[in-house]
């Protein structure tokens, strides 16, 4: 495409009437100001945190619930409202938000907290105690209540719970300030691995977020659609269908919002002036493919080699791919990329794992006197899978690899 036609394309895209009024409100970073079907949870959290407005220490809170049940949105919303109220009342109260999936070591957590108080702490290099000391001093420099929201807290404790122990005991050393924590997790069992003292301190209050049902998700979508999309831009069936798909998973509002956004993008790309049921179905498929592609991207190399072997066999017209044949090709690939060759047993296990992830489907079949084997079919689109596999630098050199195949037996 020359520059002129690209310019023309931009012009054309800019002139196309958009279905969206404000797409940003469908993105994960947006915190809605109104959260239907979560008033109980909002009230429970507010009831605990109100102590902060009186200058007392709120109990620590643990929030549990599956993904997309509004835990983050509710905690952030209550945090924003609490800060607003404290400004109004002239009480010093700050809510800090940390996502422990991103900030996943004790050191980085403390350094990040210290920085939020203007302390100049390097992101690596100091003894952890020193960083903690700096943070404590900064917090205690005036009378204030600090609430630390630790989202995905289970990711943090994978590397030890010392930091939580120290934070939960911090108030005993403070003269002016008070600190409390809100931990958020979608893993109900993560506290099993905690030091019992940390466990009882963190879980002073526990709040559960149940999954939404399809009706509740519809309410959430309707409210968001009103601010995200222009009027009359969707068929009446779009919201019920997005809700039904999301409720099938486990009542995940994030999934429903993603579906509604992607359906809008697809309709827009097709230059339609209304989103239809069909666009939701295409969006569901696209999100599922994207999810699987992401799973494949993060597979260990050995699993990628096993998967690539299946693909090469199918490319060569093998209709009934068996584990024995996969193993034969897998060994050739390993020799080419100079990596360890696992046993056939181990490779069969890797294939079962790929089956569980929904990447392929292995069915056990009896081959009469030849015993039993697995026949393997891919459950993912070949082209996009091949593309992600070849992104791995070790597999990249196998792009044009032609395996030597044994004659296929037809029984
Ligand atoms: N009751 C609700 N009203 C409006 N929007 C909601 C509601 N519940 C969830 N959402 C929206 O759904 C999406 C997912 O919610 P949120 O991030 O709070 O889920 P979560 O429970 O924290 O999930 P995870 O455990 O995966 O982090 C967000 O975009 C949020 O704005």
Could you explain how this protein is built, in words?
It comes from Methanohalophilus euhalobius. This is ORC1-type DNA replication protein. Belongs to the CDC6/cdc18 family. Involved in regulation of DNA replication. Keywords: ATP-binding, DNA replication, Nucleotide-binding. This protein has 411 residues and is α/β, with parallel strands linked by helices. The protein has three domains: 39-209, Rossmann fold (3-Layer(aba) Sandwich); 212-294, Helicase, Ruva Protein, domain 3; 299-396, Orthogonal Bundle (Arc Repressor Mutant, subunit A). Helices cover 52% and strands 12% of the residues. It contains 17 helices and eight strands. It has helices at residues 3-15, 39-53, 71-89, 106-116, 128-139, 153-157, 162-169, 196-202, 214-228, 238-249, 253-269, 277-297, 301-315, 323-337, 344-356, 382-391, 393-396; strands at residues 61-65, 93-99, 145-151, 178-185, 205-209, 321-322, 360-366, 372-378. The protein has a five-stranded parallel beta sheet, with helices on both faces. Helix 4 packs parallel to helix 5, helix 9 (214-228) packs across helix 10 and helix 10 packs across helix 11 (253-269). The radius of gyration is 27 Å and the shape is globular. The mean pLDDT is 90. The structure holds adenosine-5'-triphosphate. Residues 28, 32, 35-38, 65, 67-73, 186, 220, 253-254, 257 line the site of adenosine-5'-triphosphate.
């Amino acid at each position: 495409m020359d520059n002129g036609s690209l310019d023309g394309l931009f012009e054309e895209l800019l002139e196309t009437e958009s279905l969206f009024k404000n797409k940003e409100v469908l993105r994960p970073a947006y915190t809605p100001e109104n959260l239907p079907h979560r008033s109980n949870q909002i009230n429970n959290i507010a009831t605990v945190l109100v102590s902060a407005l009186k200058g007392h220490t709120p109990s620590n809170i643990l929030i549990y619930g599956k993904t997309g049940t509004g835990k983050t949105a509710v905690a952030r919303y209550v945090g924003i409202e609490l800060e607003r109220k404290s400004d109004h009342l002239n009480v010093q109260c700050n809510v800090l938000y940390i996502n422990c999936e991103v900030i996943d070591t004790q050191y980085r957590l403390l350094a990040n907290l210290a920085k939020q108080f203007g302390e100049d702490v390097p992101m690596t290099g100091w003894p952890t105690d020193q960083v903690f000391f700096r943070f404590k001093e900064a917090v205690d420099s005036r009378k204030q209540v600090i609430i630390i929201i630790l989202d995905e807290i289970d990711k943090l404790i994978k590397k030890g719970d010392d930091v939580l122990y120290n934070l939960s005991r911090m108030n005993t050393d403070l003269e002016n300030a008070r600190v409390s924590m809100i931990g958020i997790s979608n893993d109900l069992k993560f506290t099993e691995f905690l030091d019992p003292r940390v466990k009882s301190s963190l879980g002073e209050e526990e709040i559960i977020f149940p999954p939404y049902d399809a009706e509740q998700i519809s309410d959430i979508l309707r409210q968001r659609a009103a601010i995200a999309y222009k009027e009359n831009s969707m068929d009446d069936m779009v919201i019920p269908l997005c809700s039904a798909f999301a409720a099938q998973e486990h009542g995940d509002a994030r999934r429903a919002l993603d579906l509604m956004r992607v359906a809008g993008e697809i309709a827009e790309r097709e230059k339609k002036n209304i989103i239809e049921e069909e666009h939701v179905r295409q969006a569901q498929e696209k999100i599922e493919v994207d999810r699987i592609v992401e799973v494949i991207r993060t597979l260990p190399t050995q699993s990628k080699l096993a998967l690539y072997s299946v693909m090469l066999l199918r490319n060569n017209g093998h209709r009934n791919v068996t584990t024995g044949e996969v193993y034969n090709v897998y060994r050739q690939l390993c020799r080419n990329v100079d990596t360890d060759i696992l046993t056939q047993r181990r490779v069969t296990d890797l294939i079962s794992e790929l089956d569980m992830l929904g990447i392929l489907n292995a069915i056990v079949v009896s081959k009469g006197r030849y015993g039993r084997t697995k026949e393997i079919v891919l459950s993912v689109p070949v082209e996009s899978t091949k593309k992600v596999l070849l992104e791995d630098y070790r597999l990249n050199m196998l792009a044009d690899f032609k395996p030597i195949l044994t004659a296929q037996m037809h029984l």
